[in-house]
Model the fold of this input.
Amino acid sequence: MGKKINRMAGKVKVRSVSSWSIAATIFLACVCIGISLYGFTQYTVLRSAMQDYISCENAVHELQEGSDLLTKQVRLAAATGDPQYIDAYFKEANVTRSREKAVSDLTDLEGSSSEAIQTLQAALSASVDLMQTEYYSMRLVEESIGSDVSSWPQELQNTVLSSEDAALSPEAKLLRAQQLVFGTDYENAKDIISDDVNAAINTLTEEINNRQNHAADIFSHIFRLIIACVMIFAAMMLLSCLLIHFWVVRPLLSFHKDIEHDAMLSVSGANELQSLANTYNKIYQENEERQKLIKHQAEHDPLTDLLNRGSYDRILNLYIQDKKNFALILIDVDVFKSVNDTYGHAMGDAILKKVAHLLTVTFRTIDYVCRIGGDEFAVIMVEMTSDLNYTITEKINIINAELSIPKDGMPAISLSVGVALTDRRNPGKSQFTDADRALYYTKEHGKHGCTFYPAESSADNALNGI
Done:
């Protein structure tokens, strides 16, 4: 699964994912802003419809109160003959004008149908017509109590009684006034007007409710769309976080861990990170090779490619400190100076390379073959004890036999060798000093041979003779 994700990530670029994420975010943001603006307009419509509904209820209440107040005042006036009720009636009819104001408010409501308005206006017109009966009743009341005609409202002054009613006595006129406003005809007219008003009000209320429901449905739909956009946003954020974690963060943490452990980077993550890891690994490998070359150059002799004097010193000290059994073999090329002077430095270099080659192939791979001076070589032969001296002698004899035969234009040469082992008898100041004394002994006694310390032992020298 991890390899599949890495292969997929390797085909995806962070820049592409970032660009697509930005584009998708901008698109969704624009959609959300557009939906929100449209939702705000529908909220305004819904709020306006609610206000219209409240206004409608208030207007209905005011219309009903105004109509009931007129009926109440005219009936009280007819029942008691008290002119104050007539004054209250005309104050409502001519000053307060609750009915007319309510009808005007209902007419101004947004979306009011013409049919409902016409029904309201017809009801108001019928109510005004019914007021003629109320004027007539109140004229009878005024005449029954014998009040001053000049104090009457203009509407009553303009009302003319029939000859029959005009001839009635005051008590009969008051009774006749009561019959007009308490009678069946008056109630039927009031009911007809009330039914028209209610029908118009119901129509208006239904229209406002429809507006509210329509706006509420749209607002609910918009709200669901906004929720969907928020969920998409959340999914995009989660997906983005997961992609960043798997394709960017986790590879970066892995890179950090690899760098801490001085290792090559594991190639993972998005395309750019994989490219970065491959580039780093290439540089790392080149640097490793360079370090190996530098280390090799620092530890090896440039001419013979053997270990140099510094490596020899470090290895020798380690074996001495660890007190392990080994043989220290010091080697000189006999009469190298005269050969070098006679045949030239190029031939001298060729001889040194040949000696280095023979030492390398003759001794074991676990042994350390070193060049410690111009024509001076050393071999640290590990895991050696005095009972195995003959193996060293055999190897030196093989090398000297090979060098004694002129070949490839090279003159015959030989090696002088001195050996000191860790388990030698009568050890001197140091193993190097003892090996050097043995080498000196070989040079003093004819060269071309191998001497083991202590060189004065006739038994050892007999074994070491060539």
Q: What stands out?
A: The radius of gyration is 63 Å. The mean pLDDT is 83.
